Amino acid sequence: MAKIIVKTERYSYPITIDTGLIHNLASFLPLKANDQVMLVTNQTLAPLYLKSLLITLEGNGIKVDQVVLPDGEQYKSLTGLEQIFAALSEKFHGRDTTLIALGGGVIGDLTGFAAACYQRGVRFIQVPTTLLAQVDAAIGGKTAINHAMSKNMIGAFHQPISVVIDLDFLQTLPKSEFISGLAEVIKYAIALDSDFFVWLENNIEDLLARDTTALRYCIRRCCELKAGIVAIDEREENGQRALLNLGHTYGHAIEVAMGYGTWSHGQAVAAGMVMAAETAKLLGQFATADIERIKVLLLRAGLPTHGPDTMTAESYLPYMQRDKKVLAGELRLILPTGIGQSEIRSGIPSHIVIKAIKHSQIS
Amino acid sequence: MAKIIVKTERYSYPITIDTGLIHNLASFLPLKANDQVMLVTNQTLAPLYLKSLLITLEGNGIKVDQVVLPDGEQYKSLTGLEQIFAALSEKFHGRDTTLIALGGGVIGDLTGFAAACYQRGVRFIQVPTTLLAQVDAAIGGKTAINHAMSKNMIGAFHQPISVVIDLDFLQTLPKSEFISGLAEVIKYAIALDSDFFVWLENNIEDLLARDTTALRYCIRRCCELKAGIVAIDEREENGQRALLNLGHTYGHAIEVAMGYGTWSHGQAVAAGMVMAAETAKLLGQFATADIERIKVLLLRAGLPTHGPDTMTAESYLPYMQRDKKVLAGELRLILPTGIGQSEIRSGIPSHIVIKAIKHSQIS
């Protein structure tokens, strides 16, 4: 078992990584008998894991109510939120309730935001079931729902009291979702850790085979990197946490332009990271050979290295300018400055970005 | 001009109290030329004050967009919130935008919550226009909307960057709303400050005549008391801030049972404070003579001293148990222990509460 402590402004909390965690109440400390819990999950996960989790919780005297939402990004919305509030209100959940998010990024972000707002903030526990959520979304207290044209436009910083990463979930994860998570894994390596990039180059096949030892190391390393960033920039104020958005501004454009869910988040981020690298290269701060290393690793992971053929380079811009990382109308991007290092760069002319996207499409 | 500093976990901010403040950009510091602002107000206030405020802001080069909602508590809801988000999104407001709430508690709570959630938190300035908002709602960062059966069920702690209290607003405030605000003023005195209670006994007629000198002292004292509480218990965690809910659990029952707006918040709180005092008396911690002093002051202020005739004492309980101040199903109330002091008391049997409400009805 690996335990990583996330230090935040108001308190610290553990990330626990192991197999078999959902069968053991100790994974869910400080929950105890007679505590009230609202478990939020979706219709895909409920048949697989809900019963096991209920046995662990109810078997130890915890009072559990449930919200089972349909599966899909479209429930990460005011509508999905409203369903959780209705359940909390109908079942008379008080300020001392604990929400448990059993699911991927959609369930985690939505449940976390519900916990942030219900009675101005109640406790919640993240039980991420996808690779993407285990290495990224479930850690660090960013919660949100989508609104109109933009992802994560409405949200809060609200830290969980615990993150329970059960590696067993990954064995039932659809291949496409597993691969989508690998994009965020590769993002950590490009943005922050060149040694981890080399480790990925050496171990990508074991990861794809979902070897437990490889998964354990990989997830632990990502969680350590994330916890390190959260400790120094919990609210994305000093530029450190923003580095984790590498590739995301370009990627959001793809996700929104194509319609949520057409391209997976990971596919969009993968293509976005190549675009970011091409942009950095045009600005004279990134080597062609490193772009090739990134593309080779993405391809080995089963990820794309360019955006959808139906999108012109010019069509990205309106979506990128709408992105919430835009400050006062100026285009501001996270760009790599080498494998394992990155920076925020402001005032990038749009023609450079368009040229970089074109380079990613043709090369 | 009076200036009071509110010290919170993350930063301090000023409350400025004076006449004529909305005509002076200095009241809205740190806003400056080219800043982006979303001004939220309602259809009652817009014809009275919007133009003056726009002259001050736009005349100094600030870019202002507006949301003008219909007047009423029913817009303190997900629907009202959605209108603000839509405007922010349509007008491409970024993370550096500032929301300005020009209005009473409804506009302030709603706008504050929108500011708390939009892009996970943007700046906002409170410009409270009612007595209730000037002495209470606009200060201290409690933001919320109503949900289904319960008031303020969904919200956040999100501090404004400034509170601009222009005493001129009070001259156009309808009498019923002014009197509603006096209930919160009297609440501060009963809960926290016996000298202020005596001051109110000596000056209530000047207040009712809206004498500027009396208003200035009264509002300043309430803001000082509120700022003192917020500094030691920003998130209502250690029991200090909860004292400001004196009378509110009973009062919420009236507001919800009668339908929002049938009884004003202040009328409900006034009756609730008498019920709280009667409860405290039954528990042997409050003198009959002090109940009389409270009732006399409330009556002089034009406020009720008991609940609606159509509500039986028993009918309060379901609403009070649904109140968000209930912990683990146990009835927990703020009760006075004398004029100027109060405490949180747990485990109060419901028959005592019913008896106390009956006493308030017949005496």
From TrEMBL, chains A, B:
Residues 67-179 form the 3-dehydroquinate synthase N-terminal domain. It is found in: Cytoplasm. Its main location: cytoplasm. Binds 1 divalent metal cation per subunit. Can use either Co(2+) or Zn(2+). It comes from the Bacteria. InterPro entries: Dehydroquinate_synthase (IPR050071), DHQ_synth_AroB (IPR016037), DHQ_synth_fam (IPR030963), DHQS/DOIS_N (IPR030960), DHQS_C (IPR056179). The keyword Ribosomal protein does not apply. Residues 181-326 form the 3-dehydroquinate synthase C-terminal domain. It catalyses: 7-phospho-2-dehydro-3-deoxy-D-arabino-heptonate = 3-dehydroquinate + phosphate. Zn(2+) binds at residues 184, 248, 265. GO terms for cellular component: cytoplasm. NAD(+) binds at residues 71-76, 105-109, 129-130, 142, 151, 169-172. Coiled coil: none annotated. GO terms for molecular function: 3-dehydroquinate synthase activity; metal ion binding; nucleotide binding. Its cofactor is NAD(+); Co(2+); Zn(2+). One of its GO terms (biological process) is amino acid biosynthetic process. Pathway: Metabolic intermediate biosynthesis; chorismate biosynthesis; chorismate from D-erythrose 4-phosphate and phosphoenolpyruvate: step 2/7. Pfam families: DHQ_synthase, DHQS_C. Keywords: Amino-acid biosynthesis, Aromatic amino acid biosynthesis, Cobalt, Cytoplasm, Lyase, Metal-binding, NAD, Nucleotide-binding, Zinc. Its EC number is 4.2.3.4. Catalyzes the conversion of 3-deoxy-D-arabino-heptulosonate 7-phosphate (DAHP) to dehydroquinate (DHQ). Belongs to the sugar phosphate cyclases superfamily. Dehydroquinate synthase family. This is 3-dehydroquinate synthase. It comes from Candidatus Regiella insecticola 5.15. The lineage of its organism: Bacteria, Pseudomonadati, Pseudomonadota, Gammaproteobacteria, Enterobacterales. The gene is aroB.
